[in-house]
Amino acid sequence: MVGMSVPRKEGRDKVTGRAQYIDDITLPGMLYGATVRSTIPRGKINKITFGPEIPWDEFVIASAKDIPGKNCVALISDDQPCLAESIVNHPEEPILLLAHPNRHLLPQAVESVNIEYDPLPSLFTIDESERQTQIIWGSDNVFKRHLIEKGDVDSIWQQAAYIVEGEYTTGAQEQLYIENNGMIAGFDPDHGITVWGSLQCPYYVHKAIMKLCNLPEKKVRVVQTETGGAFGGKEDYPSMIAAHAALLAIKSGKPVKIIYDRMEDMVATTKRHPSRTRHRTAVDRDGKILGGEIDFTIDGGAYATLSSVVLSRGTIHAGGPYYWPNIRIRAKAVATNAPPHGAFRGFGAPQSLFAMERHMDRIAATVGISPVEVRRRNFLKCGQTTTTDQTIREPIDLNPLLDRGLALADYRAKKALFAKENQIATHKKGVGIATFLHGAGFTGSGERYLASIVGVEGCADGKVRVLVSSTEFGQGTKTVLPQIAAETLGVLYQDVELAQADTLQVPNSGPTVASRTVMVVGKLVQSAAHGLRQTLIASNLLQPEHSPEQFRSACAKYIAQHGELKSWARYEAPPGIFWDDEKYRGEAYAAYAWAVYIAEVSVDLATYSVAVDDLVALQEVGKVLHPVLARGQITGGVAQGIGYALYEKVVWQNGRMQNGQMTNYIMPTSADLPPIRVYFEELGNEHGAFGAKGIGELPMDGPAPAIVNAIADALGVPFNSIPLLPEDIFQTLTRTQPQYAPPAPQGVR
Amino acid sequence: MTAPRTQCEISFTVNGEPRTVHAYPMERLLDVLRHHLGLTGAKEGCGEGECGSCSVLMDGALVNSCLVPVLQAQGTVITTIEGIGGASHLHRVQQTILDCGGAQCGICTPGIIMAACHLLSKEPQPTAEQIKEGLSGNLCRCTGYAQICEAIAEAARETTR
Question: How many distinct structural domains can be found in chain B?
Answer without folding.
Answer: 2
